[in-house]
Write a structure and sequence with these properties.
Its EC number is 3.-.-.-. This is Serine hydrolase domain-containing protein. It is an enzyme of class 3 (hydrolase). GO terms for molecular function: hydrolase activity. The structure is a single chain. Strand 7 and strand 8 form a beta hairpin. With 471 residues, this protein is an alpha+beta fold. Helix 3 runs parallel beside helix 7, helix 3 crosses helix 8 and helix 6 crosses helix 7. It has 14 helices and 12 strands.
Length: 471
């Protein structure tokens, strides 16, 4: 019976289903381009062509309400493309006060890096600087708990950290750097004497009429009607908010309809800073990079694009500058949407795009589901031979339940069927049933009492910490 109940409550990944909004034909094409629907909850799309813009939504926002082209999503690193356009716009202004070859205004070795190097990921700066053991622990715990790894890291933090950073040996070649893009935007805003949100609005969003592309750092309410993010396995994830990282896309939200305005304008050449799209530097086989924008050559098309990813969202924006066709795809899980966008443009063939998963994801999901039951079975075996005590049996029973909680919360249930967890529950239930009749025949403690009670206290504290880390 416990196994049957657990099967009903077993973890399940999101599944793209439910309501359709907007263009029904485009929505059907979107479903086909997505292929395997597991791991997606809601998708919004805009398809731009010579005939205009078509939009559609499939699935829900995370609260049961339908996704539309007006639903705000976190767009992540698409913000880097916007920051690159700010550099291009300021550099092209009459009597420019900013030039791509200017050095960054920070003390230390990073001050030798140019704005163009930051915009094209050729600065040699680390993607995310880890400056202390405390920050490393914080990043790890954020990943485990689905929390915001950038919370509280404002512009001051970013500039202080920049003063301690040193460009690495890869300077001059393309190595993607979130930190470099964030430093670029904050440097541009500082030179203009405004905040980065003000600079972005005044130079780019305002002129394009992109009123639904907004920044929501720490303490600023999220946009009304926004989607809620999760992992592809279904776990809720907090939005990213650190204000210092805003130019890299942290805290940036937009809609498919708003980003379609951007695609239309960059193709028409009317967008401020459209020169940022020009490919300037080699970024790998068949790929070049401009100021924040990548250009990739495929067999039947060349796309200029950027994507984005936060803890619980994925985004993709691309334009074929030769034909004027473009696409925007936004999703509210961490399953990639890049291939969906390319398929809608006819660049890659349709088909399943279930992402590869590392073997460790399978090991963790399966191992955590059964490890607690296995340990309890071993303790019950010792109890049957009179070689343990009640304290150890109780500790083993607690850990058998804790392991199930950890498996439910941290397991990758897009890769592993939820039935595996249900089987773990059933095995644990059997072990608990076998433990109950052994209880009365055991002493409270065996051996040195202080040692046993100390071990039990440490075990209980560890169990509590483990549960708190994943909830």
């Amino acid at each position: 019976m416990p196994g049957v109940v657990a099967l009903l409550a077993a973890p399940r990944p999101p599944h793209l289903r439910g309501p359709v909004t907007g263009d029904a034909v485009l929505a059907a094409d979107l479903r086909a381009a997505a292929g395997d629907p597991d791991g997606y909850r809601g998708l919004a799309v805009a398809l731009i062509g010579p005939g205009g813009v078509r939009t559609a939504g499939v699935g829900d926002r995370g609260d049961g309400r339908p996704v539309t082209a007006a639903t705000p999503f976190e767009i992540g690193s698409i913000g880097k493309a916007l920051t690159g356009m700010l550099l291009a716009d300021l550099a092209a202004a009459p009597g420019p006060t900013v030039a791509p070859g200017d050095r960054v205004g920070v003390d230390g070795p990073a001050g030798d890096v140019t704005l163009a190097e930051l915009a094209s990921h050729r600065s040699g700066l680390r993607s995310v600087p880890v400056v202390s053991a405390g920050q490393a622990l914080r990043l790890y715990l954020a990943a485990v708990r689905g929390a915001d790894p950038y919370a509280g890291q404002d512009r001051g933090w970013l500039l202080r950290t920049a003063g301690t950073e040193r460009p690495g040996g890869g300077r001059g070649t393309v190595h993607y750097s979130n930190f470099g893009a964030a430093l670029l935007g904050q440097e541009l805003a500082g030179r203009a004497g405004v905040t980065y949100p003000e600079l972005l609005h005044d130079l780019l969003l305002g002129p394009l009429g992109m009123v639904h592309t907004t920044l929501h750092p720490d303490g600023v309410a999220l946009p009304a009607g926004h989607a809620t993010g999760s992992t592809a396995a279904g776990r809720h994830v907090s939005p990213w908010r650190g204000e210092g990282w805003a130019p890299a896309g942290v805290g940036m939200w937009s809609t498919a309809a708003d980003l379609a305005r951007l695609v239309t304008a960059v193709h028409a050449g009317t967008a401020p800073g459209a020169a940022a799209l020009e490919p300037r530097f080699d970024a790998g086989p068949g790929e070049r990079v401009g100021y924040g924008w990548f250009t990739t050559r495929f067999d039947n098309a060349t796309l200029t694009w950027h994507n984005g990813g936060t803890g619980g969202f994925r985004s993709y924006l691309a334009v074929d500058r030769a034909t004027g066709r473009g696409v925007v795809v936004l999703g509210n899980t961490d399953r990639d949407v890049d291939a969906i966008g390319r398929r809608l443009l006819g660049v890659t063939p349709a088909g399943s795009q279930r992402p590869p998963h590392p073997p460790m994801a399978v090991v963790l999901a399966v191992g955590l589901s059964f490890l607690g039951a296995a340990g309890l079975f071993m303790t019950v075996g010792l109890a049957a031979r009179g070689r343990t005590d009640r304290v150890r049996l109780a500790s083993s029973a607690v850990w058998s339940v804790v392991m199930l909680v950890l498996a439910f919360r941290a397991g990758d249930w897009l890769t592993v069927p939820g039935a595996v967890w249900a089987l773990g529950v059933a095995a644990t239930a059997v072990a608990l049933c076998l433990a109950v009749p052994r209880w009365r025949g055991l002493p409270l403690t065996a051996g040195r009492r202080w040692w046993r009670w100390t071990g039990a206290a440490v075990s209980a504290a560890a169990a509590l910490v483990a549960v708190l880390l994943v909830t």
